[in-house]
Amino acid sequence: MDRKAFDQLFDMTDRTVIVTGGTRGIGLALAEGYLLAGANVVVASRKPDACEQAAAHLRGLGGRAIGVPTHLGNIDDLAALVQRTVDEFGGIDVVVNNAANALAQPLGQMTPEALTKSYDVNLRGPVFLVQHALPYLKESPAAAVLNMVSVGAFNFAPSLSIYASGKAALMSFTRSMAAEFVPFGIRVNALAPGPVDTDMMRKNPQEAINAMVGGTLMRRLASPDEMVGAALLLTSNAGSYITGQVIIVDGGGTPR
Q1: Each residue of 8-51: pLDDT tens digit?
Q2: Which candidate in 34, 136, 163, 241 is catalytic?
Q3: Which of these, 143, 101, 108, lies nearest to 235 by C-alpha position?
Q4: How far is it, in rounded angstroms, from Cα 173 to Cα 145?
Q5: pTM over 0.70
Q6: What span, in angstroms and rounded, lies between the C-alpha atoms of 164 and 248?
């Protein structure tokens, strides 16, 4: 390997990346990472003001970014997100399905409405966003999809069966997408965070947070920034021979 090839491993210059749930937490950290690596970044979330604030923050880091209000449960919004991205930046190279709904209902008290609402955002939305983006991904010489799942897809998940099962299903879709899209040069992988210090995590009771932290070898929550390296690996030239995989970033809590 020569210096030029090495320097290009994690370089995302001129690539366009969509990050759903990109206005806070892990999503915003990923958006910052992609922008600093040279990408054009499109952040999507439900709240228009949060989208604009995040996009302005990203532009302040010296790159090109826009925010597009998008509800992952609304199929029409997904088509609009793709169109707005293409109108602004001319194509799509990477889709990061990060937005999630963490509805928690124990079995025995689960409502059909909760199951539908959660699956619409956690599973149906990501699948159809990729489907809408597919014609543009096919045109990209460096296309990649990153589905953010969770260690909940692997572990026992009392009271979190809706969330965990949706993430497990998205992991299954990741493998199917990887197999179906390989003829087009599109790589598809998943990243499974463990306990991360985000707004979603802080909504849990302290005892639950302590239990999650106690289940890791490193005995601490991750910073959202600690997800950036793995995400870049899976979506840049550095991961050119990685597809159909899930990387677990959890401080050593999920032996496999």
Answers
A1: 999 999 999 999 999 999 999 999 999 999 999 999 999 999 99
A2: 163
A3: 143
A4: 11
A5: yes
A6: 15
